[in-house]
Amino acid sequence: LSPFYSPELIVDWWKWSPAFLILWIPGGFRITCYYYRKAYYRSFFLHPMACSVGDQRANRIYNGEAKLPWLFQNVHRYFLYLALFILIPLWLDVLRAFNFGGKFGVGVGTLVLLVNTVLLSGYTLSCHSLRHLVGGKLDCFSCAPMGKLRHGIWERLSRANHFHMVWAWTSLFMVGFADLYVRLCSMGVWIDFKLL
Ligand code: FES
What pLDDT, on the 0 to 100 scale, is given for residue 57? Predict the structure, then answer.
């Protein structure tokens, strides 16, 4: 199953592609992502052009994210919860991709889905909001409940967060390629070669 369609939702009342029932979650997650925000504010809107550089135009477009419409960006943490949930069916799809008629096997498609899900997991788990949720808001780990455990997780998430931009781009291109690969195999254009 293409990652754009997972988990598969087939309902009578929906007349369009079932992918749209899923895509608003990763789409909203990416659009509100701190890294992508920085990229499109600076590269497309040119406002703000850098940190600490205010919008000098008379009709200020960017006023921070405390007012509409940019206030909407604060829903990112809720998209994070949904994106974490979406990882479960994606990993189940990877497990299914090792199943060749009841026997263990590995095909090119297995590797495509595996790499795609690893990259999407890296992107989701390196999210700034998750890092903040686990420990970013604490002043004192040793005073907090399960402080030692949270500190260990926070340290690992912080290391992954350092490469959030890399996770963001690699996972974006890979999920597009994984969808294309599954689609072309299902249409018989490409053959999914079995490796093991
Ligand atoms: Fe990029 Fe959360 S900050 S996914």
Answer: 64
Q: What would the pLDDT profile of 90-108 be if each residue is shown by its tens digit?
A: 999 999 999 999 999 999 9
Element (H, E) at 104: strand 103-104
CA-proximal residue: ligand 1, atom 1 (nearest)? 33
Which residues have CB under 6 Å of ligand 1?
29, 33-35, 76, 80, 127-129, 164
How is residue 129 written in tokens?
């909001």
**What is the number of other CB atoms lying within 10 angstroms of the CB of residue 121?**
18
Q: Are 184 and 112 in contact (CB under 8 A)?
A: no
Strand (E) or helix (H) holding 83 = helix 76-97
Mean pLDDT of the chain: 91
Quote the CA–CA distance of 92 and 97 in Å, as a whole number. Answer: 9
Cα(168) to centroid(ligand 1), Å: 8
- Tokens representing 97 are 């991709």
Given a contact cutoff of 8 angstroms between Cβ atoms, the answer to whether 175 and 106 are in contact is no
Q: What is the DSSP letter of 107?
A: B
Instruction: Say what the alpha-carbon torsion angle 166, 125, 130, 48 is, to the nearest 10 degrees.
Output: 20
**Structure confidence at residue 137 (pLDDT):** 81
Max CA distance (Å), the chain? 66
Q: How far apart (Å, rounded) are the C-alpha atoms in residues 125 and 169?
A: 15
Q: How far is the CA of 178 from the centre of ligand 1 (A)?
A: 21
Distance 59 CA to ligand 1 centre (A): 29
